[in-house]
Structure formats: structure tokens, C-alpha cells
């Protein structure tokens, strides 16, 4: 096992990785910005190094400072968490060239999946379903319009180098396409340094379902079930659950097999997620539950996902432990041929934001009381007395519940939302209280527009 691990991240995910590292007897090293000096992940690490001011470009994305911290502390490996440098192929290569262990997929896999057009083409070649779309960047508006006419409106206009729900727009006709193409291209050049644009079929009613994969040290790729991620605002997830209430055993078999093929196509190692759009077809409702759903590859996230805890609770695994074992060349702690899911898990992302308009609302935390009890887990980045600053993502904590059934998990989620006390910054607990009573959500028959219908 790795003996010392530098966590190149912050907040709840850094704290969560540090927790597993310490349980395994691995020396945990934190890096932090000046703004985060008093957060729990810094205090709980065995050693901590300040790598710069609040601006992420000068701290959490400062590769030179992070590598210098690794050298000065004698770190053996680097875990990037999610966001920041986690999907930066150049950083992964630099880490390994420095003689350190990179806890994540290989740089080639990150590069291959980092460009959405290249990823689509690779997946299509591997027999993974992809939505109708362009196989090369739309070089200009004329090319985008020609592609949209061939695909059929409405279309999604996407930044090829984008991620995290950013750099996307929907066009219902050519007039809207002109606006969205310029907007997405400009945003992509500014945010990602790459203005390449992809045109893809847009499905007005769709569900967002993803599969957790793990590429093992022996070369095998295994699928650890699916997660439903359709409760979103601004194309960004708020709630995840596993298993998906929309996925039948037959569809699950096809989804997981496609995800494994996707991983094998890029010789995937370590943890990753294959994200798909699930498009309901017309059901015949003969009383036997029959009906077929179509799914398409959306993208592959070459890192640990925010929502990984729901998979951990359903499968009884610690995915960070499995990541460390793969990186060290060790076998997993479970039998890949005997994976048995149990029960149902739901994760709620507790953000410092207005529960109606979802606008950020940072501030000092006066009260922070986490719920406890059977089947309840809270992965948090803050405690009372800390301040949620405006410099980073608004995620404060993840509230995860597990029950024997979806009904039990929802009941447990209602109780824990009511018991979670936060005062100071704005927070979205009232939204979750509303969602958990929403008939569309509780029925399981919802899609990515559920939040807009609630507002």
C-alpha cells in the first residue's frame, strides 16, 4: 500500500480522502489556500502545506506549488479528488514523470475522454451507443447550421472541451443556433482555452444516468451499478440515487456492459464514470412492465465523482480505498465476479445557495449540526465557526442516506433534512424538503426538467 498521500484538493472531498488514508495507515498530506487554512481537512491531515492565495489558479491549480509541496513532505502519491487538476492530463503526466504515483486513470485515457468529439468517436467505434451528432468540430456557423439541419432541431451546442454542465446551449431553430454557437464558442475559448464546438441531438425529455466503473490493476474493467442524476439545476446535479428507479434489469445489463466496453476502449485504470442520457420510448403498458428505453453515451468523467458515496453504500465498498489499491498495483478488496448490491441510497448536495433561485450565498457558519443515525452519512467540508468563501464551489456537504428500499431511503432523507441545522450562509435544505414531498420525485418517474417544473 502507498505510505504517504498528498491530497490535491479541498473541502469535503479532501476530508473524505484523508479519512480513508488515515484508516489505512497512510500518511495524509493536505495542501490548502490561505483562505482555507482553518477548514477541517487542513486540521485533520497529518501534515499541511499552504500553496498560495485564495485564487484557485494560484493555489489548487498551481501545479508547481503542489509538486513542490509533494517533494518537501516526501509524498509518495497524489490524489486529485474531483475538479481542479483531476482531469488535467498534463498534470498527471508531470506527476508520474516526477516519480510520484498518480491516483487516477492514465494521462492517455484522460486526454482521450477530455475532448467530447473524440470521446464520442471512440465510443461509437467500441459499440457504445452515441446520440446523433458531429464527428468533428463545427468550424464556423455555416458548418454548425449544416450539421443541425442534418441532425434535426432541436440541437445541443456544446463546448468540446467542456465539463461539469458548463459550456452548453439549446437551439430550437437556426436563429437560436446563431446565438448559442457564438455564446458557447466564446465561453469555451475563455474557460477552456479551446473554442471547438460540438452539435448533438437534443432530447427535450431525458434522464441522466451514469455507471461507476473501476479499472483494476490486472487490466479488467468492472461496473459497480448505475446512479440516477436527473435532479439538476443549470445542468448541474443536486440529487443522486442508486439504483435508478428508471432502469429495468434488462436495461441495467445493457448499460453496464456498454460502460465496461467504454472503459476497455481506452484501457481504463482506477475509478471513473460513464455518463449516459436515457431517452424514454413510447411504452405499451400491457401490465407486464414491458417497454424499452434507449440510452446514449454522454461523456466519461476520468476521476472520482462527487456522488460516489451512493455507490459505496449500495455495494458496501470504500471507492477511495479501491483507488489507492489500484494505484499501488494491488487487487481490490472485493470479488469482481460476486458483486451484490443491497438496498437504495440517495445523496443530497447541501450547497451555500438560495433554495429558490440557486444563487450562491456564502457567509460565516454560526450553527452546524449534522444528523446522525442508522443509514445516515454526512461528508462535510465545514464546521461551525468556518466561513464559506466566494472563491470556490458552493458545496458544503453531502447528505447520504441508505435504506432497504427506495421508500425507506426517502423517509430517512426527509427526517435527516429536517434534523440538519445550518445558520449563517444561505443553504438549500428547504429545496430538498420540498423535493422529497414532490409526487413526481417520489414516484420515481421524473426527468432532468423536474426542478424547472417545481419553480
TrEMBL record:
The keyword Nucleus does not apply. Keywords: ATP-binding, Biotin, Ligase, Nucleotide-binding. One of its GO terms (molecular function) is ATP binding. PROSITE patterns: ATP_GRASP, BC, CPSASE_1, CPSASE_2. Residues 1-455 form the Biotin carboxylation domain. Pfam families: Biotin_carb_C (PF02785), Biotin_carb_N (PF00289), CPSase_L_D2 (PF02786). SUPFAM superfamilies: Glutathione synthetase ATP-binding domain-like (SSF56059), PreATP-grasp domain (SSF52440), Rudiment single hybrid motif (SSF51246). Its EC number is 6.3.4.14. Residues 120-328 form the ATP-grasp domain. It is an enzyme of class 6 (ligase). PANTHER family: CARBOXYLASE:PYRUVATE/ACETYL-COA/PROPIONYL-COA CARBOXYLASE (PTHR18866), METHYLCROTONOYL-COA CARBOXYLASE SUBUNIT ALPHA, MITOCHONDRIAL-RELATED (PTHR18866:SF33). This is biotin carboxylase.
